[in-house]
Every structure is written in structure tokens, then in C-alpha cells.
């Protein structure tokens, strides 16, 4: 009998694996609508949709293994990281999805609120928050919108050798900043940034990528804490913030 593996579970949604099938359970059907449509129009490999019966979406497992995990060294080759950069570029060159993403003003408001929460509740030292906030403001500038994955973390990119076999978890896909995707892909894996940029194939502003590392980490801490994750684990968000100093 196949065992049920809990891939991730929290108050908002859960993902289970049974053999070669992933079952995503999400009561927010608008989020699932985005995921299904984004996978259908993305120009890079994505999981096959096997069936959908709300609140469950069944997806076929991708071959290969994840490019890495936040907080753990990646064993993937430099060529695999470059391939991930090339896949991101192909996505960013595709036609825009029909729905918008968050604007710089919306992100600035979120940054204000999260920094205030972190300081008021003594979650992180004030100096760590304020210095990273100054860095994060570098990401809040006008950008040409592209088709972004929205959560292109290393655990969502699957590789077999040096080849990308697919990208999962498209529920945050939208029009957005290309450099945000590159920042999420390299968050906690700064040593692979040059490989990703080489595969991406164009000049990028590394300071903006670093600004996105700070911004994303600052606004993620509260959500992670409230959903049972530990952002202070080695190599994770709090360490990313400390590394910016």
C-alpha cells in the first residue's frame, strides 16, 4: 500500500504525496484557479494536472529532485543552477498573464506593517530590522512587468542532472518584477547567484536582487511564525537578514 507523505501543511493549505500523485488541498479556489491557468500558459515544464475536485487539485509528480532547500547546501551542479536561470528568463520573456500582481506601493505598505510588527513584538533586534529595511527600499522602484512565478524558491524547481524537469507551486504567479523571481530563487544560496545570472543571459542589477532578499525576508517572518515554521533556522530568513549586515 502506498504511504501518504505530508509535503507541507499549515492553516491555509496542505500538500500530500501518494506515490506519483500530489494532492493540493486549498479552500481558496481563486488561488487554485491562478495555479491551474499559470501552468497552462507557462512556457516552461510544469506538472500535469490529473484532476480537480475542489478543494483538491491532483498533480503528477515531476521527475528528478528539487534544486535545493532553504537552509541546506545545494548539491545541484552550477549547470543546473544556470539552467534554472535560463528557465526564469524564458518565463519572463513570455506574454503577460491576464491578472496583475502587487505594486511597489502595496509592497511598501506591507513592509511598513511587518517591520513595525517585528520591532513592537521584539521578534528581531531593531537595528537588524531598520538596516535591512533601508536595503529593502532599493527593490521598491518602478519595474517593467513580466510573467513571474512569484514563489520561485529552490524547492519548487526540479532538475535531473543539469536539466530542468519542471517548476511547481504556481499559485503566486502574476505580473511582477523579474528580479524578484531571481531573488527568491537564490535566497539563502547567494553562492549560486552568478550561475543563475549567467543562465539568465542578460545584465541584472545585483543590488536590487539583494534588496529583494531583505524585503522578502522581512515580510515573511510573521507569516512563517504564525504558520508553524521557524525563520530563525540555520540558513533561513533571519540568517539572510543578518548576512545583509
Please state the average pLDDT score: 96
Secondary-structure-based class equals alpha+beta
CATH class: Alpha Beta
General shape: globular
Number of strands: 10
Number of helices: 8
Predict the CATH topology.
Aminoglycoside 3'-phosphotransferase, Chain: A, domain 2
Number of domains: 1
Residues in β-strands, percent: 15-25%
Largest sheet: 5 strands, antiparallel
Largest sheet, spatial ordering of strands: 1-2-3-5-4
Organism: Kitasatospora acidiphila
Protein name: Phosphotransferase
Keywords: Transferase
GO molecular function: transferase activity
Provide a descriptive summary of the structure in words.
By secondary structure, this protein is of the alpha+beta class. The protein has one domain: Aminoglycoside phosphotransferase (APH), C-terminal lobe (Aminoglycoside 3'-phosphotransferase, Chain: A, domain 2). 41% of the residues lie in helices and 18% in strands. It has helices at 29-41, 78-92, 104-120, 126-136, 178-186, 193-200, 206-226, 237-243, and strands spanning 4-9, 14-18, 21-25, 49-53, 56-60, 65-66, 146-148, 157-160, 163-167, 174-176. The protein has a 5-stranded antiparallel sheet, with no helix packed on it. It has a 3-stranded antiparallel sheet with strand order 6-8-9, with helices on one face. The longest helix is centred in the C-terminal third of the chain and has 21 residues, at 206-226. The protein is globular, with a radius of gyration of 18 Å. The protein starts with a strand and ends with a helix. The relative contact order is 0.17. The model has no long low-confidence stretch (mean pLDDT 96). Keywords: Transferase. InterPro entries: AGP_Transferase (IPR051678), Aminoglycoside_PTrfase (IPR002575), Kinase-like_dom_sf (IPR011009). This is Phosphotransferase.
Amino acid at each position: 500500500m502506498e504511504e501518504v507523505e505530508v509535503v507541507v501543511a499549515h492553516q491555509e493549505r496542505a500538500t500530500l504525496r501518494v506515490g506519483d500523485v500530489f494532492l493540493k488541498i486549498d479552500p481558496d479556489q481563486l488561488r487554485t484557479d491562478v495555479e491551474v491557468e499559470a501552468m497552462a500558459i507557462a512556457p516552461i515544464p510544469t506538472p500535469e494536472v490529473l484532476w480537480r475536485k475542489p478543494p483538491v487539485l491532483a498533480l503528477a509528480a515531476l521527475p528528478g529532485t528539487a534544486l535545493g532547500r532553504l537552509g541546506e547546501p545545494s548539491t545541484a551542479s552550477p549547470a543546473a543552477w544556470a539552467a534554472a536561470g535560463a528557465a526564469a528568463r524564458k518565463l519572463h520573456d513570455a506574454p503577460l498573464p491576464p491578472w496583475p500582481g502587487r505594486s511597489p506601493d502595496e509592497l511598501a505598505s506591507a513592509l511598513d506593517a511587518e517591520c513595525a510588527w517585528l520591532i513592537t513584538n521584539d521578534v528581531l533586534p531593531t537595528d537588524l530590522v531598520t538596516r535591512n529595511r533601508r536595503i529593502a527600499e532599493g527593490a521598491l522602484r518602478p519595474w517593467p512587468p513580466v510573467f513571474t512565478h512569484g514563489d520561485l524558491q529552490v524547492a519548487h524547481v526540479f532538475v535531473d542532472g543539469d536539466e530542468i524537469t519542471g517548476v511547481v507551486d504556481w499559485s503566486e504567479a502574476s505580473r511582477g518584477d523579474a528580479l524578484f523571481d531571481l531573488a527568491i530563487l537564490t535566497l539563502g544560496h547567494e553562492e549560486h547567484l552568478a550561475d543563475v545570472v549567467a543562465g539568465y543571459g542578460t545584465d541584472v542589477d545585483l543590488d536590487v536582487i539583494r534588496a529583494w532578499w531583505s524585503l522578502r525576508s522581512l515580510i515573511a517572518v510573521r507569516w512563517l511564525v504564525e504558520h508553524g515554521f521557524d525563520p530563525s533556522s540555520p540558513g533561513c530568513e533571519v540568517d539572510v537578514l543578518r548576512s545583509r549586515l
